[in-house]
Amino acid sequence: MNRRRRSTAFLAVAGLTAGLLLTAPQSASAANLIKNPGFETAGTGDMPYCWEKSGWGDNDFTFTTTSDAHTGSKAMKVELTRRVDGDRKALITESAACAPVVTPGKQYDLSLWYKTTTPDAAITLFRHDTTAGWQYWTDLKTLDMAGGWTEATVRTPEVPAGTDRISWGVSVYGTGSATTDDYTMDQVPDPVLPPECTGTAEQCANGKWDVLPTQNPVRSMHSVVLHNGKVLLIAGSGNDESMFEAGTFTSAVYDPANGSYKVVPTPKDMFCAGHVQLQDGRVLVMSGNKGYPTADGRVGYQGYKDSYIFDPETETYTKTNDMNDGHWYPSATVLGNGDVISFGGLREDSTGSVTAELFSEAEQQWQPLWKVNQTWSYWGLYPSMILMQDGRLFYSGSHVFGNNIPGTGSAIYDYDANTTTQVPGLRNKDERDQSASVLLPPAQDQKVLTLGGGNIDSNPEANRLTDIIDLKQPNPSYVAGPPIPQGTVDLGNGPVPQTGNQGKMYVSAVLLPDGKVLETGGALHNRANPVYETSIFDPASETFDPVAVDPEARGYHSSAFLLPDGRVMTTGDNPGNGTWNHDVSVYSPPYLFKGPRPQITSVIDTEWNYGDTQRITVDRPVAKAQLIRPAAVTHSSDPNQRFVDLPLSVDGDNVDLNVTSNPNLAPPGWYMLFAVDANGVPAVAKWVHLQGPQALKATDASAHVHDFADAPKGKVTGPGKKRVSQKVSPTVSGCDRHYGSINVCVPTDFPAEVKKTTAARCEWLKTNDYGRLKVNGKDDPLNLDRNRDGIACGKGDLTRR
Question: According to the lineage, what is the superkingdom (predicted)?
Fold first, then answer.
């Protein structure tokens, strides 16, 4: 994990302002937005007019205006003769006089001619934010080595909101040189034809939900989209103790192509395990349920140490070596080198695990404890740990069950330094239980959205909060986003409009190929009161657009995930009365009703490396392309979900895609490749395989690591005192086990509107279809068995004075 972070040092050309120019600027052509594109006009100092030196790090370099030009008499040569780290860039001067004006939401075609003696050169962009000033934007394209003059072309992503100018040029980050000339920049024309609606007006505006005719055969709470387009649905015992006692553990493989399900033998109770795709597309499944809580509530859930790998080709599980500790509800984050890191969960004795685990991609096994950096911190259950562009981990504050971790509830963890820095701004940090967090499109922007949540311990009404953080900032902090739109909520007598600040927990968030985010499902309280609301969030405008609503309840143990054809599938719902919703819904977003879909007619190569230029062909013009990592989701959590922009070079139906050089932006593995037209209509995805460690040996990706989140001012802590575990209450799941069977969840704390009387509590349980509840043991902490006959909420309990 390469985490070298440096401050970017710009070498400004002294006195280069519009009022001090000694030479008149060279006029640009009508289309070309670049001033002095061929370096022919001299400036003050030793750089041409409207060009400046930039760079950082420990290296020896020269900037030379050379006569070895493509056209005219001058070109710019940047050379590194020694490099320890960093880069050097010749960039358009970051000033109102020189930097091209751009329009938010538009795209621009960039072109230049170059010669290189190093493979370590790239087209790099900076943008001017009207509030925050100049900041790094992205690296668009790695330049192939070329001894003769070669043209490089690339299309920018859509210009972010608040951006009024950009600067760009070539960075050199390895020993050798890059000579460039004849820069051009043109705005991509707007599409001539508006989208053609191919459905009803309602479908074109809000999309459409369909409930599939065939039910899911297993009580799946884990969903993994496989690189063959099928979906692995893992149930284990399915939160059903009778299945656990019988040793009946199930998974199913769903095939969207024909709607079929295949039930797969499952060796262990993977109920509430962790999972992630490995580099080769197999699925690593870690820990799961070793035992259910005891009937008297004295012992809670237990997590085992076992780990398995599921092979999509054979559709079978194979055991790995054991983890160092048990982890019921663990995190699972794939790193830029293909390793997997995991935190949190419950141990074999029901206490909280403070052991970090590392699965080695190279060795294909969990590492022994002495090889893994430890903070001895308890991160809770399913902590959302998102990989940042420099290899650090961002804990977003999304988790499962009860209160958040101490402090601000959000943090940056640096594995190499073994330090944790608190990050401020997350609102109501102890009511983000079963919230969702996603790295917003594109991953290059390093923004995270966290939405919704509640608290199963105190059981308040779930909230509408959204918070957004920009990890590109040197001192990142969450800021308030727009509230989640309200829908209807079923309080026991059918759906009614939400009121006040009612929001939802158990929310799902899915990245869409048009660069937006679908949020759907949820409930108002702990495993009760489903909320029917679906919206699409636009990261560019930071606004929600309410759309068609999933007709099925999707609360606890539900999943939502993107299919390769651009639709979204939702499964599951497990309310507190122990029932399970086997119906499956599929959402067709509005973009599927906006005219014919483009097609990717060929992918020249499906094996990709970092820094590649890969060619595809399409049957009609496309505006953008991206890689979307397939889902591995459970309990509102998929920290590996990401949308990676692929800048374009377009030549008719041939489209060259420029792959990021930074594996922390796109960890190695299989991805869905989407191409999207100007109306946001995506092609059906093609699968491509992005290589990992092999590419890192050839190119040092540290040059593409900028000083994002480099100086967070929060409290910094190192590793604590070595310890065995964190004490965790047996009622961590928010259920009082004194009543009913194990898969029934009588809340330890009823919603605030329920009076603390036997009659009110029993009425709430009746309204939520709990049925007959046996009292386990002699204790009756909720006072539901007043006549002591062993049955909660019986007739005698309600009439007894």
Answer: Bacteria
Helix, strand, or coil (residue 693): helix
**Structure tokens of 164?**
């009024």
615: tokens are 């060619």
Placement of tokens 């499962």 in the chain:
400
Residue 702: the pLDDT is 54
Using a CB cutoff of 8 Å and minimum separation of 24, what contacts does 407-415 make? 407/715, 408/714, 410/469, 410/478, 411/714, 412/388, 412/476, 412/709, 412/712, 413/375, 413/385, 414/3, 415/1, 415/3, 415/341, 415/373, 415/391
Question: How far, in Å, CA of 340 to CA of 348, rounded?
Answer: 21
Give exposure, 700-732, as e/b (b: 16+ Cβ within 10 Å). bbbbbbbbbbbebebeeeeeeeeeebbebebbb
Judge whether residue 270 has pLDDT over 60: yes
| Distances from the Cα of 629 to the Cα of 65, 434, 659, 784, angstroms | 43, 22, 14, 48
Return the residue matching tokens 């591995």: 632
* Range from 100-104, 444-448, 747-751, 797-801 carrying the lowest mean pLDDT: 797-801
Amino acid identity at 499? T
C-alpha R_g of the chain: 28
Query: Which residues does residue 354 pair with via DSSP β-bridges, in sequence order?
Result: none
Residues forming a β-bridge with 357: 342
The contacts of residue 286 (CB under 8 Å, 6+ apart) are 273, 274, 275, 307, 323, 327, 330, 332, 342, 357, 359
Cβ-based neighbours of 442, under 8 Å, separated by 6 or more: 157, 515, 626, 643, 644, 645
Pairing mode, strands 316-319 and 333-334: unpaired
446-457 burial code (b ≥16 CB/10 A, e <16)? bbbbbbbbbbbb
Mean pLDDT of 406-414: 97
Letter for the amino acid at 672? M
Number of helical (H) and strand (E) elements in the chain, helices listed first = 5, 60
CA atoms of 534 and 780, how far apart (whole Å):
40
Model-wide pTM > 0.70: yes
What is the residue-wise DSSP string for 256-312?
TTTTEEEEEE-SS--TT-EEEE-TTS-EEEE--EEEPPPTTSSS--EE---EEEEET
Give the C-alpha separation, 11 to 303, whole Å.
Answer: 55
Sign of CA dihedral 782, 784, 787, 788: negative
Distances (CA, A) of 423 to 4, 114, 161: 20, 43, 24
Length of the chain: 801
CA distances 240 to 18, 577, 636, 740, 744, Å, are 73, 12, 20, 12, 9
pLDDT tens-digit series, residues 527-586: 999 999 999 999 999 999 999 999 999 999 999 999 999 999 999 999 999 999 999 999
Per the CB < 8 A criterion, the answer to whether 660 and 444 are in contact is: yes
Say which range, 104-108, 210-214, 456-460, 710-714, has the weakest mean pLDDT.
710-714
Sign of the CA dihedral with 517 first, then 522, 525, and 531 last: positive
What's the rounded Cα separation, in Å, for the pair 649 and 618? 13
Both tokens assigned to 689:
């395989």
Query: With the CA atoms of 638, 327, 462 and 714 taken in that order, what torsion angle do they form, in degrees rounded to the nearest 10?
Result: -80
CA dist 157 and 170 (Å) reads 17
pLDDT at 599: 98
pLDDT of residue 793: 94
* CA-based nearest residue to 635, from 341, 383, 314: 383
- Give the residue carrying structure tokens 């405008």: 541
C-alpha separations of 284 from 224, 287, 310, 317, 632 in Å:
11, 10, 7, 9, 10
Per-residue CA distances from 689 to 47, 278, 629, 667 (Å)? 42, 11, 11, 11
- In sign, the C-alpha dihedral spanning 275, 644, 4, 709 is negative
Q: For residue 446, what is the DSSP state?
A: -
